[in-house]
Amino acid sequence: MADSRPLLLEVEHLCKWFPLKRTAGDVLQRKEKRYLKAVNDVSFQLFKGENLGLVGESGCGKSTLARTILRLYEPTSGTIRLNGTDISHMKGDALRRLRPQMQMIFQAPAASLDPRQSVGKSIEEVYVINTDYPAPVRREKTMELLERVGLKREHYYSYPHALSGGQKQRVGIARAIALDTRFVVLDESVSALDVSVQAQILQLLNELSREKHLTYFFITHDLGVVKHFCDRILVMYLGNVCELAESSVLFHKPLHPYTESLLAAVPRLKVGQEHSTEFVLEGDVPSAMTPPKGCPFHTRCSKCMEICTREKPPVVEQEPGHFVACHLYEKKKEETEA
Ligand code: SF4
């Protein structure tokens, strides 16, 4: 069903494959070139002003997908459109002009801050690189930004080592919104913070989203955070889309066996709500260098059928806005139609 909300981002059949080094043996045996298929045929849309969560186990390609969308990696194939413009292979000045609109906030803000540079200088650097504001304007804008993200003007002169984890993350947010930003990727941005600080940072991100009409792509493995912060959730496994739905729908009526397993793994505090053993995931995620044939999840799926070992299931809209890639539902659809 067509959605009438304005689109910010359209990703179609996006792939990011990293070529593997060929060994002397490979060359002698004339083996085909091999790839690590980090992102494999991913399609989705992101609407203006929404928070889309991206979840999946470590190594499933979440960060590679985000970095490819931000054009930090060149896509192997597929299309990325931002505000209707194809940016998939944009280069040079055009790409540099686009950068301020798309920003990323990292998990470890300390790693993205120069320990020898004061907080103020590291934020001001964004203006030095991207604008021709005179020095007094840059400084005043930096001071205003510090206040907007909940820091004090005095923090302009502080060095990263003197800040707490939450304060460093506020500096990361200030750098990300300093320019005319529209799209922000939050890559596990609150995962390393204490729970109380997490809540404060999420509150700040919500306020900024409303104020500056930001759209967030929120990468995390914390389903509790994503449930409360995101409008919709995209579930990935081994570089592929498993399921995409509104948060409330996904949590109450997951369709894909992998989503069921992820939700079953969330710790329960209430007596009587212990885990169901039906959905407990066994084994490790297969290597993206040698992904299984057919459904990428079939080696761990308790509902695996014969077709799953042969054919990769397409992503199908089962209910309005609820997409799933699983042969179980194709079969059910055929039975209903018969
Ligand atoms: Fe499981 Fe088959 Fe569905 Fe894959 S397609 S999730 S193996 S039932």
Write a structural description:
With 338 residues, this protein is of the alpha/beta class. It is built from 11 helices and 12 strands. The protein has helices at residues 24-28, 62-69, 92-98, 119-130, 135-148, 165-177, 195-212, 223-229, 247-252, 257-264, 327-337, and strands spanning 7-19, 35-47, 51-55, 77-82, 85-86, 102-105, 183-187, 215-219, 232-237, 240-246, 316-319, 322-324. Helix 4 packs across helix 5 (135-148), helix 4 packs parallel to helix 6 (165-177) and helix 6 runs parallel beside helix 7. The chain is globular, with a radius of gyration of 22 Å. The relative contact order is 0.13. The mean pLDDT is 89. The structure holds iron/sulfur cluster. Residues 256-257, 295, 297-298, 301, 303-305, 308, 313, 326-328 line the site of iron/sulfur cluster (SF4).
Low-confidence stretches: none
Gyration radius, in Å? 22 Å
Number of strands: 12
Give the biggest sheet: 8 strands, mixed
Which H/E pattern describes the elements?
EHEEHEEHEHHHEHEHEEHHEEH
By secondary-structure content and strand pairing, the structural class works out as: alpha/beta
Mean pLDDT: 89
**Order of strands in the sheet with most strands:** 6-7-8-3-9-10-12-11
Bound molecules: iron/sulfur cluster
Q: What is the overall shape? A: globular
Q: Separation of termini?
A: 22 Å
Helix content: 25-40%
Tell me what portion of residues adopts beta-strand conformation. 15-25%
User: What is the count of DSSP helices, taking H or I runs of 4+ residues?
Assistant: 11
